[in-house]
Design a protein that fits this description.
6-stranded antiparallel β-sheet, 3 domains, single chain
Length: 159
């Protein structure tokens, strides 16, 4: 990194202190101001890098493959350029969709499409009122069932 870039990043006083390992005295500050001019501090813009692990499908054969560690710099681009091809670690990726996930990837000479898999809905458990469970337990006790048998019966009932 050049001196000018470092001054832009840290500021003149901090540059003298950290990079030159000297105390920023007024004479030194004046000397470097004459040498480099008055350079304002530019804060570096930090972007969060988004990473995906996703299942993709080959465009032609339909072969499914899981690609890991895909990343995209789409958030750096203006909105009108976001769906253009993106560079990622394993090839070219293209973003799209409502939440800007990778929709197309070119990897090792093959093209893959992202198929969003809907999560399987878990079957909802039956809700049985407490009063009904209490009645079943009392009936089982009267029938002379052991606590283990009652527990197994309730478990089967609630599944």
């Amino acid at each position: 990194m050049k001196a000018i870039d470092r001054i832009k990043r840290y500021g003149l006083k901090e540059y003298i202190k950290t990079c030159l390992h000297k105390q920023p005295t007024p004479e030194l500050i004046k000397k470097y101001k004459e040498k480099y001019g008055d350079i304002p501090i530019e804060k570096p813009i930090r972007y969060q890098q988004t990473v995906w692990d996703a299942v993709f499908e080959d465009e032609i054969s339909g072969e499914r493959v899981e690609l890991k560690g895909l990343w995209s710099n789409a958030h750096k681009l203006p909105d009108n350029e976001r769906d253009i091809e993106e560079i990622e670690r394993k090839g070219q990726a293209e973003l799209g969709g409502s939440n800007w996930h990778i929709v197309r990837v070119k990897y090792r000479g093959k093209r893959y499409i992202y198929r969003e898999e809907k999560p399987k809905e878990k079957p909802r458990k039956k809700i049985i009122p407490r009063q009904q469970i209490k009645e079943v337990i009392e009936g089982a006790k009267m029938a002379g069932m052991s606590p283990e048998e009652i527990g197994r019966m309730l478990k089967a009932m609630l599944k």
